[in-house]
Design brief:
InterPro entries: Homeodomain-like_sf (IPR009057), HTH-type_TetR-like_transc_reg (IPR050109), HTH_TetR (IPR001647), Tet_transcr_reg_TetR-rel_C_sf (IPR036271). Residues 9-69 form the HTH tetR-type domain. Keywords: DNA-binding, Transcription, Transcription regulation. This protein folds into two domains: 1-51, Arc Repressor Mutant, subunit A, CATH 1.10.10.60; 55-192, Tetracycline Repressor, domain 2, CATH 1.10.357. It has helices at 3-26, 33-40, 44-50, 54-78, 83-100, 105-117, 126-141, 151-170, 177-192, 201-204. By secondary structure, the chain is mainly α. The protein is 74% helix and 0% strand.
């Protein structure tokens, strides 16, 4: 990383941390971009140069939190005996976080799906997708998961099931996010289950 890119990332982190403090103090919907700029001590032009919309600031902070929390969470997950148990550990921790920060779910999902629509879906919880891909790669080698699809593609499928579970939870005040994530994982496992190769007639000779 160059000195310029490090400076840029420091500014982004400064803005995101200031915004998070405001969100916690006043609630996400009440905070304006102007307040974020003032709290972060940057010009409005600098703020908009880094983040076009408030949802992007929120996503930056959330992804930084994820990067910080992911290493100990993955260590806990890797202690589990199976792929399903490992992913369930990650999802259970995620469900608890979202239950405690429900106000952020709708704006985050708006940002995520807008990014996909605009063709910028790469900047979206990529650390979590990479973590899924690592778990899937190991599960493919142990024949828990089908190995005819690349790990990163399967990880993206799993992540979009994760986002769909969040949507279902937001749409039902009585729903349990942990249960929604469990349903999403079950659906993924049914589609991604290991399949023994079918011998061709030529191989049978």
């Amino acid at each position: 990383m160059t000195a310029l890119s490090r400076k840029r990332q420091r500014t982004r982190t400064q803005i995101a941390d200031a915004a998070a403090a405001l969100f916690e103090r006043y609630g996400y919907e009440a905070v304006t971009m102007e307040q974020i700029a003032a709290e972060a001590g940057v010009a409005r032009g600098t703020l908009y140069n880094h983040f076009a919309v408030k949802e992007a600031v929120l996503a930056e902070w959330m992804h930084a939190r994820l990067a910080q929390d992911l290493a100990p969470l993955m260590a806990q997950a890797l202690a589990k005996p199976s792929f399903a148990a490992r992913v369930a550990t990650v999802l259970e921790a995620s469900a608890q976080w979202w239950e405690d920060h429900r106000q952020y779910a709708a704006p985050y999902l708006r940002f995520r799906f807008q990014a996909v629509r605009d063709g910028a879906g790469g900047h979206d919880g990529s650390d979590l997708v990479a973590a899924y891909a690592g778990l899937i790669d190991a599960a493919q080698r142990s024949r828990e998961i089908r190995d005819d699809v690349p790990p990163v593609r399967l990880a993206r499928y799993l992540h979009f099931l994760y986002l769909s579970a969040l949507l279902a939870w937001l749409g039902d005040a009585d729903a349990s996010l942990q249960a929604e994530f469990a349903h999403a994982l079950e659906f993924f496992l049914q589609g991604a289950a290991y399949r023994k190769p079918i011998p061709s007639p030529k191989d049978a000779r």
